[in-house]
Amino acid sequence: MSATEQEPWQWDEATWRGHVGAVRAGRPLRPARWPGGARAAVALSFDSDHETIPLRNDETQPGKLSQGEYGSRTGVPRILRLLRDRSIPATFFMPAVSGLLHPEEVRAYVEDGHEVALHGWIHERNMQLAGADERELTFRAADTLETLSGKRPVGIRTPSWDFSDNTLAISRELGLLYDSSLMADDEPYEILDHGEPTGMVEIPVEWIRDDAPYFTMDRYTSSRPYTPPRGVLSLWRDEFDLALEEGGLFQLTMHPHVVGHRSRFAVLRELIDHMGQFDLWYATHEQLAEYVKRECGL
Ligand SMILES: [Zn+2]
């Protein structure tokens, strides 16, 4: 019986150690100080998925697609106005197909000084793809975003944080500065590839600091929002408050088609009002990755 046919309880030590050791958190990247002596760093991100989630699921009906269209048509302008008003830079992770559907939106991100970064081709599920297909789609997405935004993307967030056995090798081949799909810390760290330092920065994410799990509903499944928007505000404020106390990073993942709705947008605005009381460094994921890499001598 080969290793792949074994049940996990039958694995020998080399097998379970091998799985755990493939992609691992390395040295912490916690700088002694933030730019300007700020008390903490804030990295806001928006995954501009729009129509690509239903498309990825082969749900091509107009009703489903219109839910994604809301993100681009209504959510993004609302978000950009707020960020402009508060002078906050952010990172927009965008599937290439979403960028091709909304090229004017990509230009608006760039004009406002935001970062545009990789988020797959059509929000594909990497863990269901052969390595060669994942590689081809990721490279094609990088070329497409470069054409649309005028700049080669330097960071990736895998769609649905679906980080496959092949993702790290593909990101390294692309020469990316950072990934933002893994969850081994609250603070940035260097990614290890089979124990070897990669020089690549991880800006960790978590479902706790994501709007989708709290707000998403599906008419025909049991997926229903279970946390009221003000409850989400309370959770995110607590996450921020402890990051501030620790002098660390507060990173947040949102989606224009989710947080862009009025009753949820109010939560984002109140959170930004709360953070506005403190001396903070607001950075794109690229600026953050560059800073921690330099300051920590990576
Ligand atoms: Zn996404």
What does this structure look like?
The protein is an alpha/beta fold and 298 residues long. It has a single domain, classed as Glycoside hydrolase/deacetylase (TIM Barrel, Alpha-Beta Barrel). Helix content is 44%, strand content 16%. The chain has helices at residues 13-21, 52-56, 62-86, 96-101, 103-111, 131-149, 167-173, 212-215, 229-246, 256-259, 262-275, 285-295; strands at 23-28, 40-47, 91-94, 115-118, 155-156, 178-179, 189-193, 196-202, 249-254, 280-282. Strands 1-7-8-6-5 form a five-stranded mixed sheet. Strand 5, helix 7 and strand 6 form a beta-alpha-beta unit. The longest helix is centred in the first third of the chain and has 25 residues, at 62-86. The mean pLDDT is 96. Residues 47, 49, 119, 123, 159 line the site of zinc ion. One of its GO terms (biological process) is carbohydrate metabolic process. This is Polysaccharide deacetylase. Residues 62-283 form the NodB homology domain.
